[in-house]
Every structure is written in structure tokens, then in C-alpha cells.
Recover the amino acids of this structure.
């Protein structure tokens, strides 16, 4: 019964997914090369997600259980200093994978009462400053380019996330609680 209710609440997702499946299956059946490529790419990406997401959710769950809310609130919450942004950047730098890995961690930070600007900094830094990504970038574009991009983009990330956090707080915006 809960599944039917969830499907009814997200009917557009079900409809879009069904339409996608019909189009891909039609393309594969007709021997349409782009349809076949789309189907293969989807299955490859889906398999990668099945391999990556369960460990991420387990680690996020362990983070949720092992790290106390008071600790996160003290170091990354409202009363924290500028050092909280450094902690967020360091945590984001260790993230392996894309933002689909960083989003559950950001959600856990939010639930543990990290301030919004720190959560936004974490997400932004995960998008631009992950160590594996920077190593890959440096191997193609050189260490000098990577260092300059990192040195220019990080202060802009902290500045923009601080301004956004201040702006949201001023308007009394709060992310919805999803527990």
C-alpha cells in the first residue's frame, strides 16, 4: 500500500521513467543506433550507481551514528568560526565520486545542524576540489593550472556560500526537515 501511495505522489517520475523505457526499448528493437547507445549508457551508469551508492549510504549512516550532533554543531554550526569552512573544504576534498556521493553527506551535515553556508561550501568544494579529480585534472592540464584554479575558486566558493547562507538566514529560510 505504501508503494502505491508513493507512486501516486510521484506520478510524473513514473511517467517519465516509463516513457524513457518505452523509447529506449523501441530504439533497441528497431536497431536504431542512438537508442541502443542510450540504453547501453543507461545500464552502465545504473550498474555503477548500484556499486557505489550502497557503501556511501552505509558510510553516511555510520557518520550519522558515530558523530554526535553536538560535535558537528560546535565545529560547523551557527556558533562556529571561519575554521568551519576549512573543515567543510577538507571533508569535501576527501570525497571520492561526484556530487551524488556528496549529497547524502551534506544531508547528514544538515540534519546534525551544520549551518547552511557550511553545507553549501561542502557541496561546492566537493564539486571543484576533490583530490582524485584534481589529480586527474593535473595530469592533463598541469599542476600550475590546477593550483591556480583551486586558489582562485576556493575563496570565491567560501564568499558566495557565506553570502547565500546570510541571505537565506535573513529571509528566515530553513531547509525542510526530512526525517
Amino acid at each position: 500500500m505504501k508503494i502505491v501511495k508513493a507512486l501516486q505522489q510521484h506520478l510524473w517520475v513514473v511517467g517519465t521513467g516509463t516513457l524513457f523505457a518505452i523509447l529506449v526499448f523501441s530504439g533497441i528493437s528497431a536497431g536504431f543506433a542512438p537508442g541502443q547507445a542510450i540504453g547501453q549508457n543507461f545500464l552502465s551508469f545504473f550498474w555503477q550507481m548500484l556499486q557505489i551508492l550502497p557503501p556511501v549510504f552505509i558510510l553516511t549512516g555510520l557518520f550519522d551514528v558515530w558523530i554526535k550532533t553536538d560535535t558537528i554543531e560546535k565545529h560547523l554550526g551557527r556558533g562556529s568560526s571561519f575554521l568551519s569552512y576549512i573543515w567543510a573544504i577538507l571533508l569535501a576534498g576527501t570525497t571520492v565520486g561526484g556530487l551524488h556521493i556528496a549529497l547524502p553527506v551534506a544531508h547528514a551535515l544538515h540534519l546534525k545542524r551544520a549551518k547552511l553556508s557550511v553545507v553549501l561550501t561542502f557541496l561546492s568544494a566537493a564539486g571543484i576540489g576533490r583530490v582524485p579529480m584534481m589529480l586527474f585534472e593535473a595530469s592533463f592540464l598541469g599542476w600550475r593550472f590546477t593550483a591556480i584554479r583551486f586558489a582562485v575558486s576556493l575563496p570565491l566558493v567560501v564568499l558566495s556560500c557565506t553570502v547565500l547562507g546570510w541571505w537565506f538566514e535573513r529571509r528566515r529560510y530553513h531547509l525542510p526537515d526530512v526525517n
